């Protein structure tokens, strides 16, 4: 088992990474008599809910659960309300613990529910998708979507422990494994050229879910993100670098309707757009853009805009991005491969041109 | 103008108290070019929205507003969503400021919206009811109700400034002025016997809205609450004392349906129940209970349970209180008049007997 510690101002919490951790009572920070509510969804619950419930009941916890429908389109205030209702119906007090068992959507909704229920209860993440394991379960960003924008409503709220059982990836659809690899590649691109190299050598093993490489990869990603979050918990500075490709990607997700493209797929194309813009600005070479494109393609990820979307469809969505300040578009771009930065007032015609460079022309 | 500073771990913020402050640009921590969204309701907006809007426009702010229906029953996730929609439709970014113009409901909903929109934006409170001026606008508790419990969903989130224009009380229905006085009396009862004496001497002036006494009274209440909050921002200890009468009172509000009794009216009866229980335990004398009852009555507040509610109706609601820990009922009681404490595991039959003592028998 590997452990990554996330160091925050007021406290630290561990991320445990290994096989069969769902069944390991020692990784749960719970004791006999503790009340627990597991939040999961209809897809994940049949696979893992019994295992987690039994492990916790053996510890002596009182365990109940609430299941949400599966999918990004249920990342809403309505799903949040389902969790609150379940907690209230069973008289859960301020001393209860909420556990998110599932992917990024479950983690984000349950995390925001934990932040909000009685103004804050304890929270444990058990991410079961690669995306959630390397990204959304680290750093305390929780949120739900609004019809007018993704992740617009939420809180910064940290879990007390994150438990990553890498065997859960065996039940994950391949398309979602690949989508998770988009975020993995992002870490290399923005902050760690050596890791980018490592990925170029091991991407096929990761696609094939080779356990040792997977566990190293996940721990490396968690460490990179944990370091960034420790420096900048509430995203006033460095943390924004983690959003490489996300402003473009969110535009794709919003335009197509949540859930039609996977988040990682949208981010893959978004990173290509950010790379194209970085190349236009003279930061990186055409060869660097090619390396990124090739790595994404080997992970079976898209690298061009959805064919139902025109370049001019992007900007209205992008202007609602949380990084927009005083009406000015700020984007994460690449200074070099392995080093990202945030721009302050990006020219919109350049942005349009970079989007066009990643759009199929008939 | 009086100023009370609330000292928090990471920063301080001022509460300004005086006449005609709505029109005073110097009390608003805003500058030319700032974007502002005012949240108000249908009752308050016709009275004060223009005044505040003009003052801010003179500073050079871009001002928009969103109006909620008036009343506790609109303190819901749905109202929250109205605010998010308004913010998103007008492309408000993370650098915008939300202003709550209204009573406790507006302050609580807008405060929670500010805490949640893009995971937190700046927030200014302009409370226009006595209750909000002495209580809900100080201390950073924000929340909405759930059909199964009051204030169950929310956040601890502090404003950057609170602006109390005491002339707004002239337009407040007398019944609401009185309800606010319940919380005023509470401060004396729990923490400040000298202030309790002062209230016994000046309660008639307060009921009559005599400005100088009002301003002193509000500043004294804000100072008491600010001191408590500074010691205990997230209610792990002392802050719970502020809830004298509230566990009983919330049961009344939930049972009758939100908004039928005013919060202060329910708290007045709740304080009588807490006092009756304190007397049963031998803490305070019958004469002390009588002083509290007389002061509440002079403020035209109820002192006995609603006649549609039986003593046994209380406990199921009370067991969902946020102070319940591990299934044990914790209540704020009086050690002496002017000194409250939190009990750890209150016997339910004693609680029932105290409720009965404040119930009309035919």
From TrEMBL, chains A, B:
Binds 1 divalent metal cation per subunit. Can use either Co(2+) or Zn(2+). One of its GO terms (biological process) is amino acid biosynthetic process. Its cofactor is Co(2+); Zn(2+); NAD(+). InterPro entries: Dehydroquinate_synthase, DHQ_synth_AroB, DHQ_synth_fam, DHQS/DOIS_N, DHQS_C. One of its GO terms (cellular component) is cytoplasm. It holds the Pfam family DHQS_C. Its EC number is 4.2.3.4. Gene3D superfamilies: 3.40.50.1970, Dehydroquinate synthase-like - alpha domain (1.20.1090.10). GO terms for molecular function: 3-dehydroquinate synthase activity; metal ion binding; nucleotide binding. Residues 66-178 form the 3-dehydroquinate synthase N-terminal domain. Catalyzes the conversion of 3-deoxy-D-arabino-heptulosonate 7-phosphate (DAHP) to dehydroquinate (DHQ). HAMAP family: DHQ_synthase. Belongs to the sugar phosphate cyclases superfamily. Dehydroquinate synthase family. This is 3-dehydroquinate synthase. The gene is aroB.
């Amino acid at each position: 088992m590997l452990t990554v510690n996330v160091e925050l101002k007021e406290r630290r919490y561990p991320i445990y990474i290994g096989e069969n951790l769902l069944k390991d009572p020692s990784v749960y920070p719970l004791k006999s008599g503790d009340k627990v509510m597991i939040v999961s969804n209809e897809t994940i619950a049949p696979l893992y809910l019994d295992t987690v419930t039994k492990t916790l009941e053996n510890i002596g916890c009182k365990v109940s659960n609430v299941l949400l429908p599966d999918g990004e389109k249920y990342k809403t205030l309505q799903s949040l309300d389902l969790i609150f209702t379940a907690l209230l119906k069973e008289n859960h007090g301020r001393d209860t613990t909420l556990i998110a068992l599932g992917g990024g959507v479950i983690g984000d909704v349950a995390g925001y529910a934990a932040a909000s229920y009685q103004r804050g209860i304890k929270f444990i993440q058990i991410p079961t998708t690669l995306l959630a394991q390397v990204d959304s379960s680290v750093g305390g960003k929780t949120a739900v979507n609004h019809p007018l924008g993704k992740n617009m409503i939420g809180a910064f709220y940290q879990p007390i422990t994150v438990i990553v059982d890498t065997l859960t990836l065996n039940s994950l659809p391949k398309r979602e494994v690949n989508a998770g690899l988009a975020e993995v590649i992002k870490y290399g691109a923005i902050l760690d050229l050596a890791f980018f190299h490592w990925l170029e050598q091991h991407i096929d093993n990761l696609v094939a879910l080779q356990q040792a490489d997977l566990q190293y990869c996940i721990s490396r990603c968690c460490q990179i993100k944990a370091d960034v979050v420790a420096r900048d918990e509430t995203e006033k500075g460095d943390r924004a670098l983690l959003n490489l490709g996300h402003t473009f990607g969110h535009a794709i997700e919003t335009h197509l309707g949540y859930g039609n493209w996977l988040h990682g797929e949208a981010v893959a194309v978004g990173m290509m757009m950010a790379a194209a813009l970085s190349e236009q600005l003279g930061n990186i070479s055409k060869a660097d853009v090619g390396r990124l494109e090739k790595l994404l393609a080997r992970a079976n990820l898209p690298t061009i805009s959805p064919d139902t979307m025109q370049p001019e469809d992007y900007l209205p969505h992008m202007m609602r991005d949380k990084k927009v300040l005083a009406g000015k578009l700020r984007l994460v771009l690449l200074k070099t491969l392995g080093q990202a930065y945030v721009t302050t007032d990006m020219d919109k015609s350049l942005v349009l041109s970079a989007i066009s460079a990643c759009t199929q022309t008939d």
